[in-house]
């Protein structure tokens, strides 16, 4: 083909269809750059640690705490494992999270400040939700889209003052986008990265621990509320947020390159009496809560309507925002009963041996009696549900709850090597959160738009 487009499955010969390693039977026509669905499995490579990728202010402290593996997130090294597999691995970390209290190095959530007289108007233009409804010292989960409706980032958005917002960003370089957007618009704001690095304190004992550290005021902090405090004599902002469905807080350390040790030990010291454990971000718990991971479950070629984020797209926001026209067009199609995408994100419960670590591939989903039709983005084992759970993309016609599917798991997770396991589409979230998310609240109220 010479038009620059990828061939569709029906345009391939029989030999090409079955031999092509990137599985063209899975319709990725929504994407300009399809996901690489080749099943390479774990690969014996070692991460190169060099000066071209940033080490966060807490990097050496994570190593001291036992971090033995890492990935790269926002061009920073990101610890992703502390407990060795022979000592229980990620599931031992999960146990500490859901039963006690944990400390996470999440400095990779780089803080992008938008400050100035036009801060509210600028933020309102770049996010889908209504920024005017965010009060000072409060925050919200938000998404930013491009003009084609692709999700560029899904940060926690904090409003420190009338004229100051912080984007606590997920894994894409949002600062460059924000600066580029404002280059021709000339909102009266400054846009820059701050020397502020967050830690997360997560788990059922997080509230009494944080009360010991910063005072009982933290007990009155509402979900997505903010407060100023000091830890280890250093200024911090504390929010009741986090990448789990458990009770938890984020601690944003000012001047983090100078204050990292004081804040870190200011939490770890008092935490010892609560059984605090340093762990990696708990993807097993965020999957159960239906929290999405940018680059894994969503990216700049994913519409919110594909990924159960319709509640992030308002129906009544009068102000213009980037992507508004295309998002409203897509919603009109959906309202008319015409789903405008090839694939949709769903929750799955799967058979097979317990999945107790990160997947190295997008595992493939089959339609029973037919071929491969989708792929898993985020799988893990749920001890509470006693089953494997996952997020994954399937054709819209197969996205209804209780639809029977099959998943091609690696041999070490399969019941019978070489045979896919049974799976079923189910409700997301898999488990309720301590603080119901905006999506859960929208569902309870019977609406599919942002409040």
Topology:
Elements: H1 14-19, H2 59-64, E1 69-73, E2 76-81, H3 89-99, E3 102-105, E4 111-115, H4 119-126, E5 138-141, E6 144-145, E7 151-153, E8 156-161, E9 164-168, H5 174-185, E10 190-193, E11 197-202, H6 206-214, E12 226-231, E13 234-239, E14 248-253, H7 256-271, E15 277-278, H8 283-288, H9 324-335, E16 343-350, E17 364-366, E18 372-382, E19 387-395, E20 404-408, E21 421-426, H10 438-444
Parallel strand pairs: 3-15
Antiparallel strand pairs: 1-2, 3-11, 4-9, 4-10, 5-8, 6-7, 8-9, 11-14, 12-13, 13-14, 16-19, 16-21, 17-18, 17-20, 18-19, 20-21
Helix pairs in contact: 6-7
Helix content: 10-25%
Mean pLDDT: 94
- Give the strand order of the largest sheet, numbering strands 1, 2, ... along the chain: 12-13-14-11-3-15
Give the biggest beta sheet.
6 strands, mixed
Strand content: 15-25%
How far the N terminus sits from the C terminus, by CA atoms, comes to 46 Å
Determine the number of helices (DSSP H or I, runs of at least 4 residues): 10
CA-atom Rg in angstroms: 22 Å
Number of DSSP strand runs: 21
Structural classification = alpha+beta
What general outline do the C-alpha atoms trace?
globular
